[in-house]
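Subject: for your reference before the review

Hello V.,

The reviewers asked for a structural picture of the protein, and I figured it would be easier to keep everything in one thread rather than splitting it across files. Below is the amino acid sequence we used in the manuscript, unchanged from the supplementary table.
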Amino acid sequence: MFGKRKKALVVYYTKTGHTGEAAEAVARGLRESRVEVEVKTLDQVDPSDLEAYSIIAVGAPTWAARPARPMKKFLKGLDKKALKGKVAAPFTSYAGMRGKATLRRMRRLLRRRKAKKVLKGVAVKAGAPLSLWKGRSPSEEDLARLEELGRKLARS
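And here is what came back from the structure prediction:
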């Protein structure tokens, strides 16, 4: 009668904090939908940790129209069936352009790890191009889109 409560992992990599802000917004959307959520930076996650979750959201900044190397390396290093039966979604922060290209690449990596369903994801404008300077934070509208991504993950 009562199903098991869903558990989600929001894992992200960041240099200036923008992708961390995005991760927290995704987590808020998941929590609003009564999903148990853990938010972790990439260096806090071991690939074997993924087994405990039914929902995985991954976030990375956009570097030259690609996900940041540490996240790309992590995703490529996962077992080919690491996400089997899980719902997944990418999100990215970008300062210049090409955030959507990063989302496409991350979706492809998630599909190749056999995620049951991969949502389109969200790209948010934040930061300063070609810089480690903090720059602008994600807008309220972008944070709302990220929260909606969390709610969509919960419904999937």
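For the response letter, the relevant points are probably these. Helices lie at 18-32, 69-77, 99-112, 140-155. The chain has a mean pLDDT of 90.

Happy to draft the paragraph if you're swamped.

O.
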